[in-house]
Amino acid sequence: ELNTITYSAGVSACEKGGQWAIALGLLADMALVRVEVDTITYSAGASACEKGGQWARALGLLADMALARVEVDTITYSAGVSACEKGGQWAIALGLLADMARARVESNTITYNACVSACELGGHWATALG
After folding, report:
1. Do 118 and 78 touch, CB atoms closer than 8 A?
2. Residues 73, 108 contacting (CB under 8 angstroms)
3. What is the pLDDT of residue 71?
4. Which residue, among 6, 66, 83, 76, has the nearest Cα to 40 in the 3D structure?
5. At 2, is the secondary structure helix, strand, or coil?
6. What is the pLDDT of residues 18-55, one digit of tens each?
7. How many angstroms separate the CA atoms of 125 and 57, rounded?
């Protein structure tokens, strides 16, 4: 039987295998067959996008979560920030960090390091210090 747990396992396997497109396909299938997509599944999808250099798609999943009223947690935000780092989107990475604070979601070392790195890669190292 296909359920949230089996789909999450599939999306997570895609993340580990660098198959972001298949991960997104599984997420889309979940909606079609009316299987609930939870925070863990979205996080795995965002991480798969991050690892595949698909920062805009990772951010799209964060937006989908808000629309579906699924809780966005530290892991999901960190995947979005890391995706922005890899995509050279330092301003968006900082915006996500600000969104985390507004949503009262705790940031962690991974989140901060990705923001600092995004600023550095974007030539805005002074912003990272401020």
Report:
1. no
2. no
3. 94
4. 76
5. coil
6. 999 999 999 999 999 999 999 999 999 999 999 999 99
7. 26
Question: What region, left, alpha or beta, does residue 31 occupy, with left being phi > 0 and alpha being psi -120 to 50 degrees?
Answer: alpha
- CA-nearest of 105, 24, 99, 11 to 60 is 24
> What is the sign, positive or negative, of the torsion defined by CA atoms of 78, 63, 12, 4?
positive
Q: What stretches of 13-126 adopt beta strand conformation (E)? A: none
Q: How many Å apart are CA 32 and CA 11, to the nearest integer? A: 16
Spatial CA neighbour of 121 closest among 95, 82, 77: 82
pLDDT, tens digit, 9 for 90 and up, residues 95-122: 999 999 999 999 999 899 998 998 888 7
CB 97 within 8 A of CB 118: no
Closest to 123 in 3D by CA, of 88, 86, 97: 88
Per DSSP, 8 falls in state H
